Amino acid sequence: MEPRKGFTKKHCYLFIEVHVKRKQLVKNKTIYVCQSCGTSSPKWQGKCPACGEWNTYVEEVIAKETKQPQWRQDKGNSKSITRPLALNEITFRPESRINTHDQELNRVLGGGIMPGSLVLIGGEPGIGKSTLMLQIALMLREYKVLYVSGEESEQQIKMRADRLQEKIAAPSTTNDCYVLPETSMQIIFKQIELLQPNFVVIDSIQTLQSDYVESSAGSVSQVKECTSELMKFAKESGTPVMLIGHITKEGSIAGPKVLEHMVDTVLQFEGDRHMSYRILRTTKNRFGSTAELGIYEMTDGGLRQVTNPSEILISQREGELSGITVGASLEGNRPMLIEIQSLVSTATYGTPQRSSTGFDAKRLNMLLAVLEKRAGYRLGVQDVFLNIAGGLKVEDPAIDLAVCASIVSSFLDIPVSSRLCLAAEVGLGGEIRAVNRIENRISEAEKLGFEEIFISKFSLKGIDTKKFNITVRPYTKLEDMIADLMQ
Ligand code: TYD
Ligand code: MG
């Protein structure tokens, strides 16, 4: 047979090279994974068909070998078969929740840590996630705690722990807190089997790396794999695990949304880095309400629990200033008195500016329109700046009335008494509407020494105002309320 024309030795090498490469490709299969939602595809795509995000596909290598379970490899065969149980066969022990000795965290979690739960705590860098977790680890005195850190060395952790023990978590000789600076999932599990801790903290999930996934730490497949292994460990051993997660530029927890679906509870640690108050919020909780809120203050000795938030949210002012009012709001089950400040001044440029911090800008525009149309204040030509003190974001409609009062007070330059607070929603017709749990709000205002509270007349149904030591003033119309307030 004639050799093919032009088929030289060089072509031959090229041919072999292509074959070898192709074989390698088959061995190390690569897929493209959306870094936003975790969808995978054999091809690169510009726009993710699942979540609609652009340029989120990243090539990741998946090892071809069949994956072995990492957690309890030897015990895989002895897995008992689960069977259905009648509801009354199951006994529930509420006392089994772990008390963290941190009332804020206990409340946010729905009454302590559930055994076998996986909790994810997210927050911006430097907000205090590591500090909070280390503090909790130190306060859990009767438990053996393992603090795994992929971000700091044992020296750094020791330094921080000493500082925390000085002030917040009292030093104790019986403390059983172990530190493991490690990122390999396999080594961590080996150490867990040796140590048998009752509580595990992972700082952070994005630094962990499993040998069974070849992509780099922090990628979607790594984060997913490590979380699912930790989930298996938590559920099988009944040991609670707390994961620290990073936040992306957009403010969501770095990693796919599936990460949030996998865990039992998602906590967000928020606050301004330049302000000392930090807020711990639940965005998902399988064992409790998501409406709860924890407040901390960052001090030089760690995070201090703020048990009476109203005291810090209301500034101590000297003399009375116009534009400042206090609204009785409810965050979860917790009543909170919040100071609202506004500044109304004539617009110097054509279009008046509206700016609000901590309050929905659309709702502010609506309230301005109501004040203009129903109460006759010409606010259309005014700049309006609204600020909720303390860096809080308030969604409770009960502060509408306090916002309206604050705007009118600034507009007319008449101060509102600092011994007065307000709690009602304002409707489009200028009507003052009832809000839920008014009794909690009234008693909180009373506790803090307020003398008067303005509420909706419709809130009065079924409550006895005589039992309070505070004057309750019911209204139905915004104009009437403002007329009384500004006299
Ligand atoms: P850190 O817990 O490291 O943040 P994260 O883990 O969320 O990235 O917190 C770091 C910040 O907290 C840092 O700016 C210093 C401050 N800090 C204090 O003010 N007081 C303290 O006692 C500690 C431990 C930290
Ligand atoms: Mg940290």
Q: Which tags fit this structure?
A:
single chain, about 475 residues, alpha/beta, Rossmann fold, Ribosomal Protein S5, domain 2, 3 domains, four-stranded mixed sheet, 12 helices, 21 strands, globular, binds thymidine-5'-diphosphate, binds magnesium ion
Written account of the structure:
Helices cover 28% and strands 24% of the residues. It has twelve helices and 21 strands. The chain has a nine-stranded mixed beta sheet with strand order 6-5-7-8-4-9-10-11-12, with helices on both faces. Strands 13-14-16-15 form a four-stranded mixed beta sheet. A hairpin with a 5-residue loop joins strand 1 and strand 2. Helix 3 packs across helix 4. The longest helix has 19 residues, at 9-27. The mean pLDDT is 84. Thymidine-5'-diphosphate binds at residues 123, 125-131, 160, 163, 298, 300-302.
Give a short synopsis of this structure.
With 487 residues, the chain is an alpha/beta fold. The protein has helices at residues 9-27, 103-108, 129-139, 154-167, 185-195, 220-237, 257-262, 309-313, 361-375, 400-412, 438-447, 478-485, and strands at residues 29-34, 40-41, 57-62, 118-123, 144-149, 176-181, 199-203, 241-245, 265-270, 277-285, 293-299, 302-305, 324-331, 334-346, 354-357, 382-388, 420-423, 425-426, 432-433, 452-456, 471-475. Helix 3 (129-139) packs across helix 4 (154-167) and helix 9 packs across helix 10.
